[in-house]
Design goal:
The complex is a heterodimer of chains A (about 120) and B (about 210).
Chain A: H1 4-9, E1 25-34, E2 37-51, E3 58-64, E4 70-76, E5 82-92, E6 112-114
Chain B: E1 4-16, E2 22-30, E3 33-39, H1 41-44, E4 48-55, H2 63-70, E5 77-84, E6 95-96, E7 106-112, E8 117-119, H3 121-125, E9 163-165, E10 169-181, E11 186-190, E12 200-205
Antiparallel strand pairs in B: 1-2, 1-12, 2-11, 3-4, 3-6, 4-5, 7-10, 7-12, 8-9, 10-11
Classes of the chains: A mainly beta (about 120), B mainly beta (about 210).
């Protein structure tokens, strides 16, 4: 339970980040600074964790890169560095943290798509 | 010029700087403070400014305290603290707010650390404790030997050992001001400050230049 005075100084919700749920397939567009110029990097994967907590709110995206190597990135949900987040599809999941996906590969790592909402 | 305030620790969070990096911040509800007395070298042997903070019901204060404040037509204030200054143009009765600080200033924050009670040497001084295995019992967090044998035949004064920990005045120096909110009387400094949420803290201009 955070103090109202703390909430007052925290940044408002990043409007380019929609309400995310575990199991969502998302594209995260991240602003990256390289020396003087700035570019946008894309990261595509499944949301396996959503944490609340004001300015500390974060979500973790997992994707399987080449050679079957799993890559997970955690983003601060209110960070101004996030350009936008696109939700491609929702999944039917029964738990809030999808850590079990780490132990699965191939067809076993699929999630059933959810069409409503 | 006085750069000091009395405040209340609200808690910690993180905010994003201009580059988008998340930085740890402690939020302090600082001021508004009132100058309750000006001490001068001629009068008191040293020069300082006495500030008052946090209005309370008059019943909370003693008659003497009320009289001291009434002299400058001030509301009843709960905390009075002195800040050493060389010279000042401030007069008793004047108001001091967070606007004396600005983003980028370095400050020292003084508070009373959280009390830990009677703590062992491992927690209090970072001793390693004893071995946990190889047939040992009752030695995990033992402080070890405190002294030699017959010579000197006593424990030297100041040897570190178990005892009361915390609940003492602690100052953290050179914290950077990252947030000033005059509307809500809030001050944000980078990093942690001593004491529990709601604890009284003094904010001073940094003594040492970085």
């Amino acid at each position: 339970m955070s103090d109202p005075l703390i909430q007052a100084v925290e940044a408002p919700d990043n409007e380019n980040v929609p309400q995310l749920r575990p199991g969502d397939l998302v594209n995260v567009y991240l602003r990256i600074k390289e020396g003087a110029n700035e570019r946008i990097q894309e990261f595509k994967g499944t949301v396996i964790r959503v944490r609340r907590g004001g300015n500390s709110a974060s979500f973790t995206v997992r994707r399987v890169a080449s050679n079957g190597i799993g890559v997970e990135r955690t983003f601060l949900a209110r960070s101004p560095r996030i350009e936008k987040v696109e939700v491609q599809r929702h999944s039917h999941v029964r738990r809030s943290k999808l850590y079990f996906l780490r132990d699965r590969t191939g067809k076993r790592a699929r999630l059933r798509q959810k069409f409503d909402a | 010029m006085l750069k000091g305030l009395i405040g209340k620790k609200i808690g910690m969070t993180q905010i994003f700087d201009d580059g988008g990096a998340a930085i740890p911040v402690t939020i302090i509800e600082a001021g508004p403070c009132y100058v309750t007395q000006v001490r001068t070298a001629g009068n008191d042997g040293y020069s300082a400014i006495q500030l008052g903070f946090q209005e309370v019901h008059p019943r909370r204060l003693t008659g003497g305290e009320l009289g001291h404040l009434k002299r400058n037509e001030l509301p009843p204030l709960r905390f009075l603290r002195e800040f050493r200054v060389k010279e000042t143009e401030l007069k008793p009765g004047e108001k001091v707010t967070v606007e004396v600080f600005e983003k980028g200033d370095a400050v020292d924050v003084t508070g009373t650390s959280k009390g830990k009670g009677f703590a062992g040497a491992v927690k209090r001084h970072g001793f390693s404790g004893g071995p946990k295995t190889h047939g040992q019992s009752d030695r995990w967090r033992a402080p070890g030997a405190r002294s030699s044998g017959t010579t000197p035949g006593r424990v030297f004064k100041g040897m570190r050992g178990p005892g009361h920990m915390g609940n003492q005045q602690v100052t953290v120096q050179g914290l950077k001001v990252v947030l000033v909110d005059p509307e809500r009387n809030l001050l944000g400094v980078r990093g942690a400050i001593p004491g529990p949420k709601g604890g009284l803290v003094l904010i001073n201009e940094a003594r040492k230049a970085r």
